[in-house]
Amino acid sequence: MKRGFAVAVRARGGRGRGTPANPAADPAATDPAGSEGSVPRRLLAVATRLFAEKGFDRTSVQEIVDTAGVTKGAMYHYFDSKDDLLAEIYTRVLRMQMTRLERIASGPGAVSERLGEAAADVVVTSIANLDDTTIFFRSLHQLSARKQREVRNERRRYHELFRSMVIEGQQAGVFTDRVPADIVVDFYFGSVHHLSTWYRPEGEWSATDVGGHYARLLLDALRPGAPQT
Amino acid sequence: MKRGFAVAVRARGGRGRGTPANPAADPAATDPAGSEGSVPRRLLAVATRLFAEKGFDRTSVQEIVDTAGVTKGAMYHYFDSKDDLLAEIYTRVLRMQMTRLERIASGPGAVSERLGEAAADVVVTSIANLDDTTIFFRSLHQLSARKQREVRNERRRYHELFRSMVIEGQQAGVFTDRVPADIVVDFYFGSVHHLSTWYRPEGEWSATDVGGHYARLLLDALRPGAPQT
Amino acid sequence: MKRGFAVAVRARGGRGRGTPANPAADPAATDPAGSEGSVPRRLLAVATRLFAEKGFDRTSVQEIVDTAGVTKGAMYHYFDSKDDLLAEIYTRVLRMQMTRLERIASGPGAVSERLGEAAADVVVTSIANLDDTTIFFRSLHQLSARKQREVRNERRRYHELFRSMVIEGQQAGVFTDRVPADIVVDFYFGSVHHLSTWYRPEGEWSATDVGGHYARLLLDALRPGAPQT
Amino acid sequence: MKRGFAVAVRARGGRGRGTPANPAADPAATDPAGSEGSVPRRLLAVATRLFAEKGFDRTSVQEIVDTAGVTKGAMYHYFDSKDDLLAEIYTRVLRMQMTRLERIASGPGAVSERLGEAAADVVVTSIANLDDTTIFFRSLHQLSARKQREVRNERRRYHELFRSMVIEGQQAGVFTDRVPADIVVDFYFGSVHHLSTWYRPEGEWSATDVGGHYARLLLDALRPGAPQT
DNA sequence: TATGAATGAGCTTTCATTCAT
DNA sequence: AATGAATGAAAGCTCATTCAT
């Protein structure tokens, strides 16, 4: 994104379900479609939806600006390129999830409680921002090499923090160490990233249900004791 | 794929195996169908590698045929479209995985053994065909609506079979039913599909290692007994 | 067409209505679709239908051979090119119409009777071979320059013969010469060539009706006497 | 045509008026929209000439834009497709001819005078726009099904108006009704549409000559009285 | 007499981006 | 802060024709 613009787009729920993940930050809720928020905000919101729906490469800049009700000139005034729009979405998602994880990991309580809370929270957040989740796991390779590296590094830091809780529990004997912490983390986040391929808001389970079940599965898998044959 | 061609491409795993771009310069012309298998076979192999490396939309037909050492006309002689190439890859993967799962599920042994074997096998197979795995979870939305439906149906059948083992164990009391079988299955296959985002053949773990760990995590999560808080 | 093949395709009616213009030449009437007559005959028949339906440029050789139930190799065995197919159609039409006109023009009877018969006959024949008529007026420019010249020359001979009857009548005082014979002929054949744009076999008028009306209009326009203001 | 552009191209007749292929080499840049009218206007003019010369399918978009001295992007900025260009030509011709006929038909004077004037006028107009006339009768089937229907409907309205004059004369006894008015109209417009296949501006007759002769033939054919045998 | 794989040139269309205003 | 005409490169696909068999 071009320097000098503070955009701070609020998170938007998956495909139309407005489930703000951070409702406190929602300023004006009286926005008819097409004129909500500032121009860059609108562009980012529209791009997120379209990228999730049709994929980055199949979404044209023309379509984005038409849907946002602005012109190409306006878009190129705020963003360097179409890639920039995608990079901005990644930045926003990473920042949000990192912030939440840091708060939980540094909180009080036993490590199993903190890990459980973090595991459930990332599920709930991923569901609340299903479009972001879809884009995240599907469009990484469409980012520039430079930006891909940035994203991967940031992601690694996130995984490290999560992993440090697993290791803490293993060292304390609260979790089994039959499976290396690295693998546990990749195992779990694979499940989380794939939520967008099967979760439907109108379906049987709420985001909280799924968060609870996923956390349960993780914690139970880490229970010490004789392995299941 | 156009009717009347039996292609039977064998699964190929890793990336980077070069295919001469200019087979005209190939002196050993004793191979009647080019430098590496028949033309459609070569096209499918090359397309798999390129789609996994760069994504479907970023791989041009020109690039595919140049790499396979044929012309566009030849490609369109065997395949209806670029989409058809992708569809063929999906068909091949689905058939292979379904066949393996059916064999394992109908085998002898306790349900926990069969589930564990199936869980490990799908990991090993996914790693042996990492390109296929990458394409599978990333390119579904680039298939035609019709073909997408077919793939999803076939995939559902696969999940059903896997789920039936989970349920069998839950009813027998071998597995806990704290988490619904549906969610267990989606949880596990999320992890499996995402193997391609982190697994590196040159890394610390063999495919069998990972298969063992993943199966272990699944079975342990299903162990009956008091839940971990 | 390649030398050495006698094809002698019988005329076929417009779009499915088998109204052979020259029924005496029809040898075998027991032909299931797809195997009627010799290969070149079938190709010509199929090409005629498709060229009339979709236009020359929009009909692919593949489509022609598929419909005729043969392969491309077979087609190129009998015809030099796709253009050759079209040229053959023109040759056939021209020959047929010229033969008929020569017979009528050299017959007995008053010039007005002969002109009327010729005028009606060309209408009936054009309707009986509506596909040919459609192709004739629409595809001339798709012929090679060489073949175009041939067709135009042949056409000129045909017009000359028709015109000679008009002039004969004008000189005999049976027809008015208010309008030059040249223009009368172009005027009339414009109407005839356009039959294929409006005439429908299932419609109100039979081919004979239209032939009668067209001949009537021509003869009445040529009646001597005070002009209509 | 894309919404929002008013093009209003004036009708152009003969062929061969060259348009510089390389307007970049045009020093007189005071004309803000290129060397000859606005870009869409130029494209339409060039397309009309080329479609008439070589046929719609044999004229490539590349050829059109090169001749007009613009790029493909520019063309697709103003027109949805190559078909759209053709559709625009049809719209223009239909509108022009309808307007003229309406003016004449609703004018004063006896029906025979009005019919004669209309008959001569359509000839003169068709000759003044020979390219349009060529395209009109030859390319209808290359239009989209939707647009074809529109054109046919508009054409039917035109024919209806012309036919209403014939019927008016027949009912008044000024014209014979030996031949149904429907057939008279199709007969006459066949002749008119085919003008482009034989009329040459450099030839023996002026457009007015031909218009007079054609109208004469029509009116004389409609004269009441004993038919010519 | 016929096959059908393969060619290679050409087609229409899309699109991110620029730039004069 | 914003417009929208124009660019230029590349995309997917079609097709008449050839040729070894």
TrEMBL record, chains A, B, C, D:
Compositionally biased spans, kind Low complexity: 18-33
Gene3D superfamilies with a match to the protein in the record: Homeodomain-like, Tetracycline Repressor, domain 2
Recorded superkingdom: Bacteria
Keyword terms of this UniProt record: DNA-binding, Repressor, Transcription, Transcription regulation
Stretches for region Disordered: 10-37
SUPFAM superfamilies on file: Homeodomain-like, Tetracyclin repressor-like, C-terminal domain
Residue ranges of the annotated DNA-binding region, renumbered to this chain: 60-79
Ranges for domain HTH tetR-type: 37-97
Transcription regulation in keyword set: yes
Listed InterPro entries: DNA-bd_HTH_TetR-type_CS, Homeodomain-like_sf, HTH-type_TetR-like_transc_reg, HTH_TetR, KstR2_TetR_C, Tet_transcr_reg_TetR-rel_C_sf
GO molecular function term, any single one: transcription cis-regulatory region binding
Record flagged with keyword Zinc: no
Listed transmembrane segments: none
Protein name: AcrR family transcriptional regulator
Native source species: Spinactinospora alkalitolerans
